[in-house]
């Protein structure tokens, strides 16, 4: 029997701009971009040159530290551009896509009989390994590590998040195949939400330990689930995979090819037709947002959600892991006596603005900071949105002090930056907690590896 | 205006060293148009200015009632009928200058420090500036207010690094400074406002016969206390609890009305700005200690005083709601806050009842637990760490 987890602490940020449950397939794209910068702490080694012809599944670059981890092209076509930055750092590879995608035929083992090593080797050489991330450190998993378990969250609770039930509609066999493959490596834990998750793809999944989770965001964060199911001790490793990426992994074993098709939710108050789109990793955002924005200027396009996503220019591309694009207004306008007004229309966790009079209202939030950064003053507010048995402010302070021993004591191995996103959102002092946690994880990672 | 002025304050501008001052005023007028860069793309609407202004709103009932009661006690001492308008006006004239001096001196010093240290101006003093007058007697000389505010800002806060870094509650540092530096001005007969004083001494001429200027706690701590409390006119108070609850008793300007404090507490708790854990546990601690004294009282009249009197007498309610809850100097952990509040309540009553030198113990109790707060938190955090270490040991022994 799996666990039943009740999350009480948390916050659902009620935003305008949820995607309608309609899936569209945009016209075939002319190019995709794969960026090593989507993978934290990766040192890439480039394998292709402009002019090279690649298939979907042809390696583009690999990890210098773990050369077996290959990053493959999701489309077939011609390498148009290899973008490098300072010190020749590899930033992006742009590929002109063929009209019809031709795939590298992958030799894959049978999931029923394969050993863990064979599954891992197949995932690494066919470009699927990057979908498997590890805790601690929230980076691409080390294929040589022995994880105690693999965790999958069947729902995304972040603001305007795609409905995974809907996104995976019709992909049940692939999802199950992906689970079967992963289960050869380590026990798979799947967490479903008590009210959000209704799809049988999740509820009837086999080969998994099924857990139920209730409550607001961050109940869908896999880190929160791990913390309550089987917290990570020093020296232990667990792996995490997103449900859509499990489907892509499953396709390797059903279609014998790297097919990075995913369903992406177009969300946010500034998107005109908010829908789900079936696209390949790395497509230009133009193909999703052309003639689909309420304003062309003074908007922010985000790969991912408003809490953990990355800002992307209008001519940018979908990120490797993203199942969501959010577009919200920028907030450059100063507001006269903004801090003193009653604030009927201002979203806030607590009741200091009169917006508490309208409890169900949805908000169009812009990117304004609503104040300036300050020292830690207010206590207890992170705890209201941080459902782990960890003292968030003490952990942050130990990170700011570069005290690795203290970080370990306070639970650094159990957290990822995304787990602190709500703390950052509610912070009165406007402290960038995700950045602090990332730096702390990087420091511990550099000392332990 | 902003566009015209800003360049001269920016890096390289003529007035760059006054940037903190410019920034302070500009952000007071406008919530700046700064946008998120890294991390979350949207932010909660709250900031420190909002937080502080909610606390000030919560203090308004205490301030208004304090003004009224200043006049009320004054006219009572003169043997006149205290009328609402006249009492309030008298109090307004007495209290307003104290507030003005407190803000002028405190903010002035704060601005100076920000310019010297090139910090942006923080909002901490907005609350301290109103708390300081509320814990003073109405007749406090203004130069003392100025001195206390200066001492509190410099020694209480800025030497530790400014807002968010102080160990002790800033307003209580101001009060403690005066309490120990000028004890005669902070005790005895100071609690009722008079037109005429010689220093701290009341000129008794014109006062009603039987006048007594001491607070209820002062009376209770007096060796000659017979069990019945008297008002300033020397008459027995028929319903002590209700008078003290509503606040028609002598005391510091803002502390007398438990009701006004409770209104403030309701605002702080409802908005989520003040910690209910601290407020509730402080009252609980005081009641528990009062109750314990009741049990062991014997023929000690003060110990036998009903425990719930402690909650409405003196500054306990005010301290519990506005001083103990200061998030910077209080315990930071949720469990720690309960221990911290409970300790404040208990110690406040112990000091009141057992220590004859200090009829009021709330200030000292809070300051003491300000100092103890990090130790309380240390043990709370340590227990969390121990659990993690234990789990680690079990895991490495192969037990799941």
Explain the overall architecture.
The complex is a heterodimer of chains A (449) and B (400). Chain A is of the alpha/beta class and 449 residues long. Among the domains of chain A are: 4-8 and 128-255, NADH-ubiquinone oxidoreductase 51kDa subunit (Rossmann fold), CATH 3.40.50; 370-448, no CATH class. Helices cover 21% and strands 20% of the residues of chain A. Chain A has eleven helices and 21 strands. Chain A has a seven-stranded mixed β-sheet. Chain A has a six-stranded mixed β-sheet with strand order 2-17-16-20-18-19, with helices on one face. A four-stranded antiparallel β-sheet of chain A has the order 3-9-8-5, with no helix packed on it. In chain A, a hairpin with an 8-residue loop joins strand 16 and strand 17 (276-280). In chain A, helix 3 crosses helix 6 and helix 8 runs antiparallel to helix 9. The longest helix of chain A has 16 residues, at 433-448. Chain A starts with a strand and ends with a helix. Chain B has 400 residues and is mostly helical. The longest helix of chain B is centred in the C-terminal third of the chain and has 35 residues, at 362-396. The radius of gyration of chain B is 23 Å and the shape is globular. The termini of chain B are far apart. The model of chain B has no long low-confidence stretch (mean pLDDT 89). Strand 21 (335-336) of chain A pairs antiparallel with strand 1 of chain B, so a sheet runs across the interface.
């Amino acid at each position: 029997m799996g666990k039943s987890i009740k999350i009480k602490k948390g916050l659902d940020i009620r935003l305008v701009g949820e995607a309608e449950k309609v899936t569209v397939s945009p016209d075939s794209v002319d190019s995709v971009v794969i960026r090593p910068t989507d993978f934290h702490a990766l040192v890439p080694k480039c394998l292709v040159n402009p002019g090279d012809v690649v298939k979907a599944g042809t390696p583009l670059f690999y990890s210098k530290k773990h050369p077996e981890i290959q990053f493959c092209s999701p489309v077939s076509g011609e390498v148009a551009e290899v973008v490098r930055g300072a010190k020749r750092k590899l930033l992006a590879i742009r590929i002109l896509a063929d009209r019809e995608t031709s795939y590298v035929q992958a030799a894959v083992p049978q999931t029923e009989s394969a050993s863990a090593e064979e599954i891992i080797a197949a995932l690494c050489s066919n470009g699927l390994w990057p979908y498997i991330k590890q805790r601690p450190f929230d980076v691409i998993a080390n294929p040589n590590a022995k994880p105690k378990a693999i965790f999958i969250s069947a729902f995304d609770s972040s603001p305007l998040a795609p409905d995974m039930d809907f996104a995976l509609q019709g992909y049940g066999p692939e999802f199950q195949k992906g689970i079967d493959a992963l289960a050869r490596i380590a026990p798979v834990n799947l967490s479903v939400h008590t009210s959000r998750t209704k799809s049988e793809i999740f509820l009837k999944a086999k080969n998994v330990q099924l857990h139920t989770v209730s409550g607001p965001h961050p109940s869908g964060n896999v880190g929160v689930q791990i913390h309550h199911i089987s917290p990570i001790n020093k020296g232990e490793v667990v792996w995490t995979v997103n449900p859509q990426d499990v489907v892509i992994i499953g396709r390797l074993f059903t279609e014998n090819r790297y097919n990075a098709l995913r369903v992406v939710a177009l969300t946010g108050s500034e998107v005109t037709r908010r829908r789900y789109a079936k696209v390949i990793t790395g497509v230009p955002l133009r193909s999703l947002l052309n003639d689909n924005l309420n304003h062309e200027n003074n908007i922010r396009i985000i790969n991912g959600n408003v809490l953990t996503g990355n800002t992307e220019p209008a001519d940018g591309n979908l990120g490797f892991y993203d199942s969501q694009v959010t577009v919200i207004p920028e907030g450059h306008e100063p507001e006269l006596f903004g801090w003193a007004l009653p604030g009927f229309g201002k979203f806030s966790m607590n009741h200091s603005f009169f917006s508490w009079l309208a409890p169900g209202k949805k908000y169009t939030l812009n990117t304004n900071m609503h104040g300036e950064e300050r020292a830690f003053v207010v206590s207890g507010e992170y705890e209201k949105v941080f459902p782990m048995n960890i003292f968030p402010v003490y952990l942050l302070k130990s990170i700011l002090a570069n005290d690795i021993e203290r970080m370990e004591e306070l639970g650094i191995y159990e957290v990822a930056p995304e787990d602190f996103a709500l703390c950052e959102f509610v912070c009165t002092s406007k402290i960038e907690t995700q950045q602090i946690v990332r730096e702390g994880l990087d420091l511990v990672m550099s000392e332990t590896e | 205006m902003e566009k015209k002025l800003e360049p001269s304050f920016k890096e390289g501008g003529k007035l760059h060293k006054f940037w903190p001052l410019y920034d302070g005023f500009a952000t007071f007028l406008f919530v700046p148009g700064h946008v998120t860069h890294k991390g979350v793309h949207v932010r909660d609407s709250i900031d420190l200015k909002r937080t502080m202004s909610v606390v000030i709103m919560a203090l308004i009932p205490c301030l208004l009632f304090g003004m009224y009661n200043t006049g009320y006690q004054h006219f009572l001492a003169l043997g006149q009928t205290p009328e609402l308008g006249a009492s309030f006006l008298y109090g307004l004239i007495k209290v307003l200058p104290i507030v003005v001096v407190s803000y002028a001196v405190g903010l002035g010093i704060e601005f100076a420090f920000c310019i010297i240290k090139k910090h942006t101006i923080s909002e901490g003093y907005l609350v301290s500036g109103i708390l300081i007058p509320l814990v003073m007697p109405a007749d406090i000389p203004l130069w003392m207010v100025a001195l206390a505010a200066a001492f509190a800002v410099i020694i209480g806060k800025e030497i530790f690094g400014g807002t968010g870094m102080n160990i002790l509650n800033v307003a209580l540092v101001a009060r403690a400074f005066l309490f120990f530096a000028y004890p005669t001005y902070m005790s005895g007969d100071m609690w009722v406002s008079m037109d005429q004083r010689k220093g701290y001494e009341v000129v008794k001429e014109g006062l009603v016969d039987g006048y007594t200027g001491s607070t209820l706690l002062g009376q209770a701590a007096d060796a000659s206390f017979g069990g019945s409390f008297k008002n300033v006119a020397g008459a027995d108070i028929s319903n002590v609890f209700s008078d003290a609850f509503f606040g028609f008793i002598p005391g510091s300007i803002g502390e007398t009305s438990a009701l006004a404090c409770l209104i403030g507490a309701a605002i702080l708790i409802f908005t989520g700005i003040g910690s209910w854990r601290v407020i509730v546990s402080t009252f609980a601690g005081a009641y528990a200690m009062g109750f314990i004294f009741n049990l062991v009282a014997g023929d000690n009249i003060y110990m036998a005083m009903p425990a719930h009197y402690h909650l409405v007498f003196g500054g306990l309610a005010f301290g519990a709601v506005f001083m103990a809850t200061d998030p910077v100097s209080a315990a930071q952990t949720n469990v720690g806050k309960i221990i911290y509040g409970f300790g404040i309540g208990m110690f406040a009553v112990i000091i009141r009842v057992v220590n004859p030198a200090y009829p009021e113990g709330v200030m000292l109790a809070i300051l003491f637990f300000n100092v103890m707060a990090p130790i309380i938190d240390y043990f709370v955090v340590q227990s969390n760490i121990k659990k993690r270490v234990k789990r680690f040991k079990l895991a490495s022994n192969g037990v799941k």
